[in-house]
Amino acid sequence: MRQEVIADKNYDRLDAFLASRLADLSRSRIQSLIREQHILLNGKPAKPRDSVKAADVVYVEVPEAVPAEAIAEDIPLDILFEDEHLLVLHKAHGIVVHPAPGNPTGTLVNALLYHCQGKLSGIGGVERPGIVHRLDKDTSGCLVVAKTNPAHQGLVAQFSERTTMEKLYLAVTHGIPKPEKDTIFTHIGRHPVNRQKMAVVNPPGGKTAITDYETLATDAATQTAFVLCHLHTGRTHQIRVHLHHKGTPILGDPIYGKKHTLPTPRLLLHAWKLSFNHPISGEKMQFTAPPPPDFGNWLRLVPDL
């Protein structure tokens, strides 16, 4: 449905103007539509905070609703282990874990529904069946998925307790961390200005975030480092925020990286190893996803990975 709205006077903000004229849309929904370019100001993309002048024309197009339940799609998966309770896979970079606005299809969940014939844990709801934890779209590596509710509950407990679950990541940083080995202990919460970012915040704000890191190799010529990170907590963007906080952001990071940095084909962050106790049998399990070729020369500098 597309409609045309003409301003009768000047307004300070586009989103406020539309909220006053479109009773069936909330202001937050209007802001999302503006960012997704479904709303145009005088035929051009705009921002929610843009001003509106009298006689300006705003075009509003509300896309048709998509089904809340994800659909099965035949998308290849790199499976490291599978039984009737769970599976562990090597997620490629560039793949979104579950459907969301802007990514309704082509996600890992769509692929899992096809591969598992719909037999996934339902605790995460219809949009996130089987999903116990996430990796960012551009992060590759090990990810465990629950096929049954008891497996899901057991895995979530291990992620929460952090006693039997271990997650090791590899990253390439712009800048060499000092000291070469340390623990980063902060609180992480929403950025106070940019709500789409996370940031180190002062307690009691945010949640406790703990990352151990160790520098495996350095390149003085490019001032870059190959870093091993051990997560003790699982906050959104935790490694990316912590390494940025130290002044050594991950190469290829479009959110927390430096503007002038070495060109890379992707975010150089990889979930290398994942270990946990099988939630049903109790057996100790460990999985490794070999670093992808995108890590280039770093794989030659540390050949025993």
How would you concisely characterize the structure shown here?
This protein is of the alpha+beta class and 305 residues long. The chain has helices at 14-21, 27-35, 108-115, 149-161, 238-245, 297-301; strands spanning 2-6, 39-41, 44-45, 57-61, 79-82, 86-91, 140-146, 166-174, 181-190, 198-201, 207-219, 224-231, 269-277, 284-288.
Notes on the structure:
This protein has 305 residues and is of the alpha+beta class. The chain folds into three domains: 2-61, Structural Genomics Hypothetical 15.5 Kd Protein In mrcA-pckA Intergenic Region, Chain A (Roll); 68-161, Pseudouridine synthase (2-Layer Sandwich); 170-270, Pseudouridine synthase. It has six helices and 14 strands. The strands form two sheets. Strands 5, 6, 7, 8, 9, 10, 11, 12, 13 and 14 form a ten-stranded mixed sheet that branches. It has a four-stranded antiparallel sheet with strand order 1-4-2-3. Strand 9 and strand 10 form a beta hairpin. Helix 1 packs across helix 2. The longest helix is centred in the middle third of the chain and has 13 residues, at 149-161. It is globular. The N and C termini lie far apart (54 Å). The model has no long low-confidence stretch (mean pLDDT 91).
